[in-house]
Design a protein that fits this description.
CATH architecture of the largest domain: 3-Layer(aba) Sandwich
Number of helices: 13
Strand order of the largest sheet: 4-10-9-8-7-5-6
Number of strands: 19
Radius of gyration: 23 Å
Strand content: 15-25%
Shape: globular
Number of domains: 2
CATH topology of the largest domain: Aspartate Aminotransferase, domain 2
Helix content: 25-40%
Distance between the termini: 33 Å
């Protein structure tokens, strides 16, 4: 395995990351250690996860119904992962753990099994993963709240106004915003939801890697998370929660593994978790996620959160001193956050800024609207008229240039040196501008180095360079 450096925070052999010493080329010549400030989009693998996957590959086989010894070993590892996920979020004894692809998959599964007539309540500032799946079944979107207190008040008022028995209610919201980092008061939200006959679903994609989660203590009924944000980027996620809704009606996906018996006229569905895990499961991804959960739990998520909070405080102070730095937030500055900052640098387009940081300084950040368009419109003060114009232009087939911002995000490998590198680079860009030439690419309508002399790494696989602009930044 490639050697990695000791992280400056959360520094222990237990939490070492694959690729921490990777060097990347610069357009100006030479290389530098890659400064990863893009953990909120996708995190590198823990070395413990990498090692576990390599060990399992020698024993990999089909799970659950294979008689072979390797099948028994793989099944034990797969079910062990389920138990590790359950423990990591301190789920209730009877809560189901469904292995999915990611948070988006988990929430869509939840939307697909809700009892008929469920009233869903969601805030407009959610990530698209928790904003869009509810549209097909009916949802009430609440305005982006200015404070936690306002959020709780409007939630309670809305729930009280809904028709009650026998109609079920679901409150679906984030654990921590992927744009502002603000952590939502989940125990208080659960109390309000339960007092008004509703259940609570938490999108924990951004919360799980950065702070402890206690479903049983806080009254969280359902929780979704992603392995690729939790230092296990092998294609698995999970939905954890109460069994009754997940076990009622037809499964979200229909196929092999989800059944007890099938005839051409009738299907008898299996019980959980098989009922919601049709098809051959991603055993490698599930085991990777389980090992990540066990490793982080052993390290102590309270410690991880405390050390990251201290580094975030340092980053806010350092970056606030940069001329033209504008930090975006909704709730008061003192409200608890996970380790990310969304910002713009006055006079520099957000996509040009990201391109310059990467090409000239070897710093990776995220840019765009972060799959949270309504929230970004609010933060960037985009008027309703301008939003309508953007919709009309996009609907007409034009590749409209959207307003956006840059985002830096911290993780297990982050250090003060990384923050200093970003602050120094932003200062240089603010004072002197780019040192290279850039142009807007036709494929993406975003700035890229022109020319770009950086070669891709010579990896032992087929590689086709793809236009940027897809995924979480959209």
């Amino acid at each position: 395995m490639t050697a990695t450096r000791e992280p400056s925070i959360h520094g222990s052999d237990l939490l070492r990351l694959v690729g921490a010493d990777t060097k990347v080329p610069l357009v100006t010549g030479g290389t530098r250690r890659y400064v990863n400030l893009d953990y909120a989009a996708s995190a590198p693998a823990l070395e413990a996860v990498h090692d576990a996957v390599e060990e399992l590959l020698g024993w990999y086989s089909s799970v659950h119904r294979g008689a072979g010894f390797k099948s028994r070993a793989s099944t034990a590892a797969y079910e062990g992962a389920r138990e590790a996920i359950h423990r990591f979020v301190n789920a209730r004894d009877d809560d189901a753990v469904i292995i999915t692809r990611n948070t988006t998959d988990s929430i869509n599964l939840m939307a697909g099994v809700l009892p008929e007539g469920t009233h869903v309540i969601c805030f407009a500032g959610e990530h698209h993963a928790n904003l869009l799946p509810w549209k097909r079944i009916g949802v009430r979107y609440l305005p982006i709240p200015e404070t936690p207190e306002e959020m709780l008040d409007v939630l309670e008022t809305t729930l009280r106004d809904l028709p009650h028995c026998p109609d079920p209610h679901l409150v679906a919201l984030t654990g921590a915003s992927n744009v502002t980092g603000e952590m939502w008061p989940l125990a208080d939200i659960a109390r309000v939801a339960h007092a008004n006959g509703a259940r609570l679903l938490v999108d924990a994609a951004q919360l799980a890697p950065h702070a402890p989660i206690d479903m049983a203590r806080d009254g969280i009924d359902y929780l979704a998370l992603s392995g690729h944000k939790l230092y296990a980027p092998y294609g698995a996620g999970a939905l954890i929660g109460e069994r009754d809704w997940l076990n009622a009606g037809d499964p979200f996906l229909r196929g092999g593994g989800a059944v007890k018996l099938v005839t051409v006229d009738e299907t008898l569905w299996a019980e959980l978790p098989d009922r919601q895990e049709a098809g051959s499961p991603n055993v490698i991804g599930a085991v990777a996620l389980g090992v990540a959960c066990d490793t982080l739990r052993e390290a102590g998520m309270e410690r991880v959160h405390a050390e990251e909070a201290a580094l975030l405080t340092y980053a806010r102070e350092r970056l606030a001193a940069v001329e033209g730095f504008e930090h975006y937030r909704i709730w008061p500055a003192e409200h608890p956050r996970v380790g990310l900052l969304t910002f713009n640098l006055r006079g520099i387009q957000y996509d040009l800024l990201a391109a310059v940081l990467s090409a000239e300084y070897g710093i990776g950040i995220r840019h765009g609207c972060f799959c949270a368009h309504p929230l970004m419109m609010r933060l960037l003060r985009v008027s309703d008229e301008e939003a309508t114009r953007l919709l009309d232009e996009t609907r007409a087939g034009h590749h409209e240039r959207l307003p956006g911002a840059a985002r830096m995000s911290l993780g297990l490998g982050s250090s003060r040196a990384d923050v200093d590198a970003l602050a120094d680079a932003l200062t240089a860009i603010a004072e002197h501008g780019p040192r290279w030439t850039y142009a807007v690419a036709d494929e993406t309508d975003e700035y890229e180095p022109n020319p770009d002399p950086r070669p891709l790494p010579a990896l032992r696989m087929r590689m086709v360079e793809h236009p940027h602009g897809h995924g979480e930044s959209a």
